[in-house]
Amino acid sequence: MYGLDDLATRTLNHLSGHSPIMDGFMILLSEVGIPLMVALVVAQWWVRTSREHTRHVLVSSGLTFLLGLALNQVILLFVHRMRPYDAGLTHLLVAPNPDYSFPSDHATASFAIAAAFLVHRFYRRGLAFLIVAFLIAFSRVYIGIHYLTDVIGGATTGLLAAYLVRKFYREGNWLDQRLTRIG
Questions:
Q1: What is the rounded distance in angstroms from the CA atom of residue 23 to the CA atom of residue 40?
Q2: What are phi and psi of 118, to 5 degrees?
Q3: pLDDT tens digits, residue range 122-139?
Q4: Which domain holds residue 152?
Q5: Phi and psi dihedrals of 131, rounded to 5?
Q6: Residue 111: closest CA among 143, 140, 84, 79
Q7: What is the CATH number of the domain that holds 156?
């Protein structure tokens, strides 16, 4: 498995360094993709159609985002994977990161947002967020900061978080009524 992961990571990372425009885009996407997604979620708070339901989905998205990152912290207690550039596998386009590599917080956060919208049947928005999530995950391997399985693991954590929030955070409960009426 590690050999295949190394090969896939090296192949994707070796796409970098040939086009300054593509390198710049991937670096930018890696740096601002998550904040942009969060801003787009927050901006929907003031929509006029299906306001309470939309706000429930937005709160669920935020909870999914936080739960996914919390799950990553638990995983990091047990998994201490070295970054691919530390292993001499990739060349790095950004400053090194001192944290462990698995799972990717960027992949977790972006897939958590997309999955939260999809499990609530907001398919158009969810699909748009999913496309961005795939691009962000790809950018993390492209710029040399993660192995391919790091972003797959992060995406899985984000999807699991969306499932858990959907299962346990119910629309219309006491907390949901209080939160969706803010602002």
A1: 24
A2: -70, -40
A3: 999 999 999 999 999 999
A4: 2-180
A5: -60, -45
A6: 140
A7: 1.20.144.10
pTM of the model: 0.91
> Residue with structure tokens 């899985």?
156
Q: Is the peptide bond before 103 cis (omega within 30 degrees of 0)?
A: yes
Q: How many folded domains does the chain comprise?
A: 1
> Would you say 26 and 142 are in contact if contact means Cβ atoms under 8 Å apart?
yes
**Residue at 91: amino acid letter:** H
* Token code pair at residue 65: 């985002």
Q: Could you report the per-residue pLDDT of 96-114, keeping only the tens digit for each?
A: 888 899 999 999 999 999 9
